[in-house]
């Protein structure tokens, strides 16, 4: 493996040390973004070929889902080597080229890091299995003897997030912990060797020029060493909501780890940044974002909030106010690789996230969902702080809910006994050009690893580009204004009075954002004219239902 070679940002971009406070970050699920070598799987070559597209879109950074070597038992979140690239995605040299080329275009690069668990094929875990009970190798993970006379019962009653128990028994009779799938054994973060290893991994990628990390399951790494029973008959998917002093979610010992990580990030001339995937109660989020810990965190409250003016205002207020108390910006996100795409969610009677993993499709009105998705995009991009765009939302893609069962790959499908379809529907490869699958996803025309709907021919980047009223053109216009309009660049934010079912707020320089989520047209403030609108205006100048407008004086 060759030595890391640092790459630099352009001087103007590198000088902005606080870029992350207001960045628009594009999430790349690399397996499904673009296939550069023609095998039907997305890869680094495909991503490099589309960097100009991302730069022209107007985002500030890309976040790449795990690209490390992995058996792909959980889409790459089962890592077997944290310092290399999965062969299907390319090589470490190609990764270096990608980082350099992204920087040349002014795009920063954020990687996923998966510190709660490894793959069961990771060298450490294989060594632990071979070494046996009581060994230093096993102490890197969480092994325990079972209960009962012969140890045949699991050490406790915890339930895994993907269904089933959190314990798997080894041939020598001990059990190991996995909060997710059996192929993802949990690391023991009470072991100094584990902490030192991940600090080394951070430095490895930072030295290559990576600008930051998204921390997978940031709320789960530390466990109560007593491993007490929870006494639950059903699993609490990710948060342990309502459980005080939870034995494996959101424990106070996490913060010492993140303080050491922040010190590493701040040691670089152009400081690196962290964003936490932390499924915690809103009152707990500021604990992760104190000035000596992590920079930002995903806002799952906003993502899961229904399109209701009162509910959204409450979430926005709480997010901005609670994080401002520790000097951190809020972030905003509508979709990601774990949730139903918001075009589909917003076309339903219940526009919130009904459940993390659903067992069957729910009827949806895609015309309505698209109109609401356009309005939500302008709301999100008008708010102060950072914003995340999940690949394909700028094309208006919907959730694919009819993937043949034999092609489903999410471990939730198997772990649930083929009752929950899982997350594959939001991970279908992107359509780029043409009228038939694979829509330019693969350079060779090979069938992609998940099938694309035939009607995505009207959703390709090419088709969006040709339509001045498309979702892509809306995102490009909004992201451009987000960079150039002084009122959208600062942190000023103030609610203004507006009719029931609507939202109206002011940013700097008198720029207003008006959102109509009622079922009736709403008047716009006098003395302002539209700068950007998510859909057609009524002839009488009223803001139609499910529409957002950015307004400026004059």
UniProtKB/TrEMBL annotation:
Q: Which SMART domains match?
A: Aamy
Stretches assigned to the Glycosyl hydrolase family 13 catalytic domain? 27-427
The record's keywords, sorted A to Z, are:
Hydrolase
- One Pfam assignment: Alpha-amylase
What InterPro entries does this protein's entry cite?
GH, GH13_cat_dom, O16G_dom_2
The domain of life is Bacteria
Gene Ontology MF terms: hydrolase activity
Checking Gene3D superfamilies in the record gives: Glycosidases, Oligo-1,6-glucosidase, Domain 2
Family to which this protein belongs:
Belongs to the glycosyl hydrolase 13 family.
Designated name of the protein? Glycoside hydrolase family 13 protein
Whose protein is this, by species?
Streptomyces olindensis
